[in-house]
Amino acid sequence: MNPPNEFYVTQKDLASKGKRFGNFIIDYIIQMVLGAGVGVLIAITAELTGNYGLYDIVVESDSRFIDYVFGFIILIIYYTTIETLTGRSIGKYITKTKVVLKDGSKPTINEILIRSLCRIIPFEQFSFLGDLGKGWHDTLSKTFVVDIEKFEANRDASSGIEQIGKAIED
Questions:
Q1: SS3 130
Q2: Whole-prediction pTM
């Protein structure tokens, strides 16, 4: 049971499955663009320096394994960096959602890193389609993706009730 006058994220604060799916699609496109951009930078660097070692490994490789590792590196850097700094990915900015902890606070870099690493689990991107609408990366990192408008309205209402109690006690 929650202590009195403390705010906690509720089921009604959570982002819908549609918004979560939108986040996934938008962020996947961003990651593809970032991956292509990094590939172009590697190619330009190889041409300018004459050192084709990294270019041969990343860009010219026919290895599916190398492709996956490169994609995972882009994924981890993208989500960890942007969600640590802002609590939101590009997809979350567009869908007006954000990542929070149970008490509504901003996650730490460790919690965001766990979220990012969990995204590598096969089929993880479909795990949020379950009944609760929480993905494995949410559950394992103990984070929540909330609809900002609903979340802030609920938090403000909770804070307002707390303030009423304090005004009466004064």
A1: coil
A2: 0.83
